[in-house]
Amino acid sequence: MANIEKRTSQDGETTYRVKVRLKGFPAQSATFERLTDARKWAQQTEIAIREGRHFKTTAAKRHTLNEAITRYIKSVLPAKPKSEYTQVGQLTWWKDTLGSYSLAEVTPALIAQHRDKLAQDKAKNRKYRTPATVNRYLAALSHVFTVATKEWMWVEENPLRKVTKMKEPRGRVRFLSDDERVKLLIACKESDSPYLYLAVVLALSTGGRRMEILGLHWQNVDLIRTIITLHETKNGERRVLPLSGHALDLMKEHAKIRQLNCDLVFPGKNFKKPVDLRTPWETALKRAEIKDFRFHDLRHSAASYLAMNGASLAEIAEILGHKTLQMVKRYSHLSEAHTSKVVARMNEKIFGV
Description:
The chain is mainly alpha-helical.
């Protein structure tokens, strides 16, 4: 229930002090110069308290973004070991930039302003941040607000929901032509590294990521069932890579000379970490005279070959380990011939033509 008290100061100025008392909740008070403002505040505050919104707003004014990010880094990020290092850097940028603001002051307009600043300022490597990188910064901050909303009850809603993400360019599709593939495999086979050729063949035949391939353990390789089981993947889900053909033959030969005191398929010199193939890889690219090609593009090549050989987007997504079809739509133009055949078979069955 609200109580409005009229007060007159010694110099004749009139103010209205409002007190809102509801059973089971702390009393709230405020002072206004106009009676209409006092009544309006009293009504809005009573409604907000009954709906459970008032004290969330109070908490948002009491806690700063610095407090929220610090608590998030300490209590939430340790459960995300794969992204912890990257997100600590992203969240530290937000903390250094907006940390002094209360959570109530961190509005969509303020975040959008600094989203643009992120894109316009150069990073530590003296390069401008890409739209994709800026969106990762926004995503990291968004999850802080999501946790602060749902678990800590510090804010009423996530302001990032009203902030537009930057438009990202279409995903890169760089795959080896038949001629390039032959040249690269020859260069890898002639490499000083005993592991490069096998690693590249595995990446091309399975679509595995670089560290999924190089970080393989023999305990996860089943040559009888002809599969590789990946327990640690980028999206956190277990994935199985089928082994067949040339890749399977190479793995069987490699298993005969494996290091018995090391479970790594591609061990480094100390047998504790995977081998670093960056130098042999770059040397092989130069010898094969292949430009604008990264190790990750072997994964794109595998997906492209699958599309061109009739695999559906759903099948490609399952093989690559994507949760949605969005990431594999970049290969849709490569499967147009397959799609045309499907439509042709359907028409033949229906119309007999």
